[in-house]
Design goal:
β1 (128-130), α11 and β2 (155-159) form a beta-alpha-beta unit. The chain has helices spanning 9-14, 17-26, 29-38, 41-50, 53-60, 65-72, 77-84, 89-97, 101-111, 118-121, 135-144, 171-176, 183-186, 200-210, 230-247, 261-288, 290-295, 299-326, 335-365, 368-398, 407-434, and strands at residues 128-130, 155-159, 165-170, 194-195, 214-218, 224-229. It is elongated. The protein is built from 21 helices and six strands. It folds into three domains: 9-112, MgtE N-terminal domain-like (MgtE N-terminal fold, Alpha Horseshoe), CATH 1.25.60.10; 128-229, CBS-domain (Roll), CATH 3.10.580.10; 261-434, Tetracycline Repressor, domain 2 (Orthogonal Bundle), CATH 1.10.357. It has 436 residues and is mainly α.
Length: 436
């Protein structure tokens, strides 16, 4: 059965929640809403959780607050908080008022944390043991909570009377240790933690360094408030990579292939206007040398070559710098070193490519002067492109702007304007020297 084949409500009920989510996202919005309102609440909630976040929020916008509250009652507070954070404030208050009080209270607590912090990413579905419990008591606690939607329980966290984290115990220890042993006798006291206000980049670095499945999240007083899972960090990394790729070309970080066209227009068109303005800036440079081109028409052939090669070289540098900034592998103090390195690369690449362009110019048009001008312009533009690839993202970061934000648009402007200026400016000087 293909995804396009209509199926009945009963067939929907037999599907896995992830498959239901896939099908709902391919249906017209109202039809998808009609189906999800007829599904059993637990199944509908799990399907909602499996949907792309933007699609899920759009669906919630079409449901009543009471219906949403019923769905939220079937989800863990951490998942509810992710969705509730995307709702308008007024709608969010109505929905949480219609949500069971215990779930609503937990969600409100999670909403205090920033979306991009450990508190916003962590899960509250964990088991905490008391240090004075025995192995047998811990096993009984595990059995009593077997029906709860817990995350991975490979490790269990040990707290004192004040809920401060004091150790960690593996499930293996609980299975093989003698029943009468106390938890504080077998626990590992050397526990790596992250603060609840740590940003997600710091969290990702911790996971990459220690290779843990989960990291306990603590507040300023060392109290255990949640657990950040490696799977959640992988999902965040995927979203960040997608957003960075899209932001570099002026797209919304949340846009997908099936995003409604009217929403895509709102995010794409403003940046296309910016791109149009920068294109006119490059055209203005060409206009300054209109008489030069009229006298030496062969120049027009090499304009896209000079600008295009500069854009490609600049994009190579830009991609590396944005990647290192995003992963925290480059600090502000590294900017000068990176700039010097890229300038050297730009010079070497420019000389290598410029030599080829110069030879082709001489061979193709039989003009040594054209070959020299084209080659020299290529060298200068390669250096300018390399410098821009470093300075643009560092400049955006200095102004507290995401370095990925439409960097390629600004880079293209620089390489086009600089390439045209170098090439046509050198050509004008050469023509004056030759008396043309």
């Amino acid at each position: 059965m293909s995804d396009a084949t209509p199926i009945s409500l009963d067939d929907f009920k037999e599907l896995h929640p992830a498959d239901i989510a896939d099908r709902l996202q391919r249906l017209p919005e109202q039809e998808a809403v009609d189906i999800i309102t007829q599904l059993p609440p637990a199944l509908a909630a799990r399907a909602l959780h499996e949907m792309e976040e933007e699609a899920a929020v759009e669906m919630l916008a079409r449901l009543s607050s009471e219906k949403i509250g019923g769905l939220f009652a079937e989800l863990p507070p951490g998942d509810v908080a992710d969705l509730a954070a995307r709702l308008p404030p007024g709608k969010r208050r109505e929905v949480l008022n219609a949500t069971p009080p215990d779930v609503a209270a937990a969600v409100r607590a999670l909403l205090h944390y920033g979306e991009d912090t450990a508190g916003g990413i962590m899960s509250d579905r964990f088991i905490a043991l008391h240090a004075d419990m025995t192995v047998q008591q811990s096993q009984e606690l595990l059995r009593s909570r077997r029906d709860e939607p817990l995350d991975d329980v490979t490790y269990l966290y040990v707290t004192d009377e004040s809920k401060r984290l004091v150790g960690i115990v593996s499930l293996r220890d609980l299975v093989f240790r003698r029943p009468e042993r106390r938890i504080d006798e077998i626990m590992n006291r050397d526990v790596k933690t992250v603060r609840v206000d740590s940003d997600q980049e710091e969290l990702a670095r911790q996971f990459e360094h220690y290779h843990y499945l989960g990291l306990p999240v603590v507040d300023a007083n060392g109290r255990l408030v949640g657990v950040a899972r490696a799977s959640d960090i992988l999902q965040v990394a995927k979203q960040e990579a997608t957003e960075d790729m899209q932001l570099m070309v002026g797209l919304s970080g949340e846009e997908r292939a099936l995003t409604p066209w009217h929403k895509s227009i709102r995010t794409r068109l403003p940046w296309l206007y910016v791109n149009l303005a920068t294109a006119f800036a490059a055209a203005a440079v060409v206009g300054l040398y209109e008489s030069t081109i009229a006298k030496w028409t062969a120049l027009a052939i090499f304009l896209p070559i000079i600008a295009g090669q500069g854009g490609n070289a600049g994009m190579q540098t830009l991609t590396i710098i944005i990647r290192d900034l995003a992963l925290g592998e480059m600090s502000a103090g590294d900017g000068r070193k990176a700039l010097l390195k890229e300038m050297i690369l730009g010079l070497i690449n420019g000389l290598a490519i410029g030599l080829v362009v110069g030879v082709i110019g001489y061979w193709w048009k039989g003009s040594l002067m054209l070959g020299v001008v084209a080659g020299a312009a290529m060298v200068l533009n390669q250096v300018a492109a390399a410098m821009s690839g470093v300075l643009i993202p560092l400049g955006l970061k200095a102004f507290k702007v995401d370095p990925a934000l439409a960097s390629s648009i600004f880079l293209t402007t620089v390489t086009d304007v600089a390439g045209f200026f170098f090439f046509l400016g050198l050509a004008a000087l050469a023509m004056r020297w030759a008396g043309m």
